[in-house]
């Protein structure tokens, strides 16, 4: 999806009970811009098997401002997954994630967050700025 622009403004996705098997899938999202402003994703009971998946998100910009993700009961198996997020900028300001009952198996997962900047605003707290060297 090199150079692809996706505008999902106001989109509602209901993936209840969906099973996704992406075994051995390679996704190259270099230079991709995704605008999910106001999008709502309901992944209740969804199962994602990303065993052996390689995702190259180099230079990808994701704006999830105001996005609400309900991952209640979601199971993610990322065994052996490699994610290269070098230079990726994620703005999750105002994002609400409900991970109640979520189980993530990250056995053998490698994440390269070199140069990644994360801004986290917690209710009733000051701004926390985390920069991975």
Automatic annotation (TrEMBL):
Record Gene3D superfamilies: Methyl-accepting chemotaxis protein
Top-level taxon of origin: Bacteria
SUPFAM superfamilies, sorted: Methyl-accepting chemotaxis protein (MCP) signaling domain (SSF58104)
Stretch list, region Disordered: 1-115
Protein name: Uncharacterized protein
Protein source organism: Nostoc sphaeroides CCNUC1
